[in-house]
Specification:
Layout lengths: L1 E3 L3 E7 L2 E9 L3 H11 L5 E9 L5 E6 L9 H10 L5 E8 L6 H18 L3 E3 L4 E7 L4 H10 L3 E7 L3 E7 L1 H10 L5 E2 L2
Length: about 190
């Protein structure tokens, strides 16, 4: 599975209709939709599709045809997201009607092509299921442990300096196992 960290866009034209596809992290979906509606007041349709993981690691999906014939735009866009194994991502396609009707097959192809093109231009990041752990240590061990964390490519989400140092780490199961082998430490799972 993959996700995007930043918004990207691509414009696709078919028989004088313009399809402007924006791919963004799901967390930005609502604000992006509002921004695009403000920037494109004369656009005919704002079709969208998104997929994200809920708190139970289940994929939640939704799409909207926004006035296009049923099943010709939102669902094909969603199918492209699923086919590319994208999660925690949303696509919004703005359509300016060019005066020539595309028919149902033409709409399906145009919306699918627009989404494929924006995905091809985006930087996709491989999704890894990570959990948050806390590690408390004294100051004298900090540089050695930071070196090891860097070597194992472990993400440090936060550092808290009080009487000891508390590191908040984002770890895959494999990284956690490797860290525990290399260092006899007590990792606490954060809730």
């Amino acid at each position: 599975m993959y996700f995007v960290k930043e918004e990207s866009s691509h414009t696709y034209e078919e028989k004088k209709s313009k399809f402007i596809a924006h791919l963004a992290p799901f967390s930005e979906f609502d604000s992006l939709m509002k921004k695009l509606r403000d920037e494109h007041p004369k656009a005919r349709h704002f079709v969208y599709a998104y997929r994200y993981l809920n708190e139970f690691n289940q994929v939640v999906e939704n799409s909207s045809d926004d006035g296009e014939p049923r099943g010709t735009s939102g669902k094909p866009a969603l199918n492209v997201l699923a086919g590319n194994e994208l999660i925690n991502s949303a696509v919004i396609i703005i359509r300016y009607f060019g005066g020539i009707k595309l028919g149902t097959g033409g709409l399906v192809r145009a919306y699918s092509d627009a989404v494929n093109l924006v995905i091809n231009e985006s930087k996709l990041i491989k999704y890894e299921d990570k959990q948050m752990f806390s590690l408390t240590l004294d100051y004298s061990r900090l540089s050695k442990i930071e070196y090891l964390l860097n070597e194992l490519e472990i993400e440090v989400a936060n550092k808290e300096f009080v009487s000891d140092v508390t590191l908040t780490l984002l770890l895959t199961k494999e990284q956690k196992d490797e860290l525990e082998i290399q260092l006899p430490i007590d990792l606490k799972l954060n809730n």
